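FIELD: query
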Amino acid sequence: MRILITGNMGYVGPSVVRQLRNSYPRAVIDGYDTGYFSHCLTIPERFPERLLDHQTYADVRTIKHEDVEGYDVVIMLAAISNDPMGARFAHVTGQINQDAAITIANIANDVGVRNLVFASSCSVYGFASGQPRNEQDPVNPLTAYAASKIGTENALAEIKGAMTITSLRFATACGMADRLRLDLALNDFVAGALTLGEISILSDGTPWRPLIDVADMALAIEWAATRSASNGGRNLVVNAGHTSGNYQVRDLAEAVSRAVPGCEVSINRDAPADSRSYKVDFGLFASLAPDFVPRMRLENSITALITGLKALAFTDRNYRQSRHFIRLESLKGLMAQGHLSERLTWSARDSAPSVFAKDLAA
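FIELD: result
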C-alpha cells in the first residue's frame, strides 16, 4: 500500500503517520507539506518524519498529477487550521483548505487512487441548539474555516468514479502531540492551569463542544483510508468523535481543575453569547467503524497533556503569544522575519525549509 499525506507536519499529521506505520509497517508512507510549522516540535526524540519513506516540501496549491500518481491512498490534512487564522487569512484559507483540496481530489480520481480521506470539521454546524446534530441536519458555517470545509465536502460529492471518498467531520481536536498546539480549548486550559494556576474561560462557559483526542483522529483516519465502499457508501460524510464526547466549556475547565489541584477557574459571565455552540451525534461513525471509535477519554487526554508539558519543563506564562505553540503567532512571526508573504508563500531564499530538511536528514 502506498499512502500520501498532505499537511503531515502539523498537529495531527505525526499521530497519523505513527498510527499507519504501526498498523502497516511495510506500507510506503510519504508526506507533502510546505513546512510552516516544522519548527514547532514538542517531543524530546527525533523528528516524527523519520517514520516516513519520503518527505516532500511543497505548497499544496502547486500540486501536480505526477505528485499523486502511484498512490493507493491520499489523506488530506493540509489546512489553515482554525478560526483566528481563517479570519486573518480568509482568502488563503479558501485557496488551501478548499481550492487545493478539490484539485488534489480530482487529480487523485484521475490517477486511480483507491481511497481519499478529507479532514473536515464539526464546526460546519456553527450554532446549533437543541438535539445533537447528525450528518443529515442543516449546516451553518460561521467562519472562513468552516465554510472552506463544507465547500470542499460539497465538491467531493460531485466527483464521479470508483474512488472511495470519506469526509471525516472531526470534533474539536485536543491532546498531546509531537507538534503541540495550545490554541485549542482543552490544551489551553491545561497550559493555563500549569503555568498561571488559573483556567480562563472567555465565554460564560455554557457553549457546547464535541472533543476528540489527536490519537483518536489518527485512528479514524486509518479506518477511512482502508474502508470499502460497501461500508458506508462510495462517498461518505461522517461525524468523527465519541457519543459521550460532547461537553460544555465549563465542564472541560472543571475537569482540568480536578487534575491540577489548586488552580482556579475564571468564567466571564458578562461575555456575549458564543456563536459557536453545538452538540454532535456520532452514532453513524460508531456503527460503521466499531473497532475505531475513540479510546481516549477526557481524563486520559488531560493526563497526557499534563505529563507532556511537564516533560518539556513548560513554564511560559505568556504562551498565548508563543510563536511555537500558537499557530497564528507562528505565521505572523515568519512573516515578520520576511520568510512568508501575505499569501503565505515562502520567499525565494526559503522556497524549501532547508534548515529543517538538513536536521531531518541527520
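FIELD: remark
The first helix runs from residue 13 to 23.
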